[in-house]
From TrEMBL:
Keywords: Isomerase, Pyridoxal phosphate. Its cofactor is pyridoxal 5'-phosphate. SUPFAM superfamilies: Alanine racemase C-terminal domain-like, PLP-binding barrel. One of its GO terms (molecular function) is pyridoxal phosphate binding. It comes from Clostridium putrefaciens. The keyword Isomerase applies. It is an enzyme of class 5 (isomerase). The lineage of its organism: Bacteria, Bacillati, Bacillota, Clostridia, Eubacteriales. This is Alanine racemase. Pfam families: Ala_racemase_C, Ala_racemase_N. The modification N6-(pyridoxal phosphate)lysine is found at K33.
Length: 354
C-alpha cells in the first residue's frame, strides 16, 4: 500500500519540449543536474533521449547515471584531472580556466566547450582571452574537438546586466562563429524573455532545466510535470474543544475527523525560506524563487486545513470533505523533497491529474 508518492507526467514533459520546439529551432541542451531537478535522472534521461539534442549534468557521477548514449555536457570546471585521463566517451568537458590546459593529456580526443566568464565571476575564461585559448587548443591538442562556447546568465531579472552580458558574449564569440559549432547562453528565464532571445540570435543552443520541468513559463504554456500525492495512513475522531498536536496550539472548533499523512518536515513540508548555505546551495539557488512560503495540501483542488504544524515525519489534517481513499495533492518541490519518495511516471495517461 502506498501512502506517499511523486507522480511525474512524461506527457507534460514531452509537451514542454514540443512547446520549446515550436517557439524556436535552437538545439536543446536538457539540464538534468540535481537528479533531473529531483525527478529521477535515470528515467527522465531515458525518456528525453530521442527528444533533445544534448544533456547537461553537474558532475561525472551524474553523467554515469544518464541513460543512453546521448552526448552529455559537464557543466562544472575541470578540476579532477582523473576524470579526463580516462574520459567518458560521450562526455563533453568544459574548459573554464587556462591553467587546466597544462594538465590535459596531449592526446585528449573528447569534445570540449569553453566557458566564458561574462560577469558572474564564478568560473570561466576571462573576456579577451578566448582567442588565446582557441589557438592554444588548436596548437597543442590535435585531437581535441572544440565543439562549443558558452556563458551563463546569472541575473536575468536585471535587464541591463543581462543585455550587457549577452553583448559581451557576442563580441567575444563573433570571430569564431564559423569555426565553433555550438554557441549558447540562454537558460530558461533567458529563453522566456523575448528581448534576451532576440539579442542572443547569434546563439544556436539553449541550456534549459526549469522550463522542461515546468518550474517556469506557466504563462507561456509550460506545465509542471510533477505532483506529490498522499493518502492518509490513519484517522481518528476528536471531540470539539480538544487540543491537538505539539504545543496544544490547535483547538477543535467542532467534532472533527483527523487524518495523518506520512509527510512532514523531512520532505520539506512547512519549509521556510531559511536555506542554509551548504554544498547544495548552488543548485537550490536556481529554485530559490520558486519556493513558496505557503505550503499546501489539496483535495480536488480545494485546500485542506493543516492541524498545527507539519511534524518531522507526519502531518495532521482536517478530513472534512475528504474520504478514506482520497488522494491528496501536496505542494512541495522535488528538488527539496526527500529523494527517496517513490516516483510514479505516467505516459499517455489521461488520468494523470496534476
Ligand atoms: C543549471 C544551469 C542551467 C539551467 O538553468 P535553468 O534556469 O534551469 O534553465 C543552465 N546553465 C548552467 C551553467 C547551469 O548551471
Amino acid at each position: 500500500m502506498k501512502y506517499l508518492w511523486c507522480q511525474v507526467s512524461l506527457d507534460r514533459l514531452e509537451e514542454n519540449i514540443n512547446n520549446i520546439r515550436n517557439m524556436d529551432d535552437k538545439k536543446i541542451i536538457a539540464v538534468v543536474k540535481g537528479n533531473a531537478y529531483g525527478l529521477g535522472i535515470e528515467r527522465i534521461t531515458e525518456f528525453l533521449e530521442d527528444k533533445i539534442d544534448y544533456f547537461a549534468v553537474a558532475d561525472i557521477s551524474e553523467a554515469k547515471r544518464v541513460a543512453g548514449e546521448k552526448e552529455i555536457l559537464l557543466l562544472t570546471p575541470l578540476i579532477d584531472i582523473e576524470d579526463i585521463i580516462n574520459p567518458m566517451e560521450n562526455v563533453i568537458y568544459t574548459i573554464d580556466n587556462e591553467e587546466i590546459l597544462e594538465h590535459i593529456p596531449k592526446d585528449f580526443s573528447n569534445k570540449v566547450h569553453i566557458y566564458l566568464d561574462t560577469g558572474m565571476n564564478r568560473m570561466g575564461i576571462k573576456i579577451g582571452r578566448l582567442k588565446y585559448v582557441v589557438e592554444y587548443i588548436q596548437n597543442n591538442f590535435p585531437s581535441m574537438i572544440l565543439d562549443g562556447v558558452y556563458t551563463h546568465l546569472h541575473n536575468t531579472k536585471s535587464r541591463k546586466g543581462t543585455l550587457k552580458q549577452i553583448n559581451i558574449f557576442k563580441d567575444e564569440v563573433t570571430p569564431f562563429l564559423d569555426r565553433i559549432p555550438n554557441i549558447h547562453c540562454l537558460n530558461s528565464s533567458g529563453f522566456l524573455n523575448e528581448e534576451y532571445k532576440s539579442e542572443a540570435d547569434f546563439t544556436n543552443n539553449i541550456r534549459v532545466g526549469n522550463l522542461l520541468y515546468g518550474y517556469e513559463g506557466s504563462d507561456k504554456g509550460f506545465k509542471k510535470v510533477f505532483s506529490y500525492k498522499a493518502k492518509v495512513i490513519n484517522k481518528f475522531k476528536v471531540k470539539k474543544g480538544s487540543k491537538i498536536g505539539y504545543g496544544e496550539k490547535y483547538k477543535a472548533k467542532e467534532d472533527i475527523l483527523v487524518g495523518i499523512l506520512g509527510i512532514g518536515n523531512i520532505e520539506h513540508l512547512g519549509f521556510n525560506k531559511d536555506v542554509k548555505h551548504n554544498i547544495f546551495y548552488d543548485i537550490l539557488k536556481v529554485f530559490y524563487h520558486h519556493i513558496r512560503k505557503q505550503y499546501c495540501i489539496f483535495c480536488n483542488d480545494k485546500p485542506i486545513e493543516i492541524i498545527g504544524r507539519p511534524n518531522m515525519n507526519v502531518t495532521m489534517i482536517n478530513m472534512k470533505g475528504a474520504g478514506d481513499e482520497t488522494i491528496f495533492t501536496i505542494d512541495i518541490t522535488p528538488i527539496l523533497a526527500e529523494s527517496s519518495i517513490n516516483k510514479e511516471y505516467t505516459y499517455n495517461d489521461i488520468q494523470a491529474s496534476l
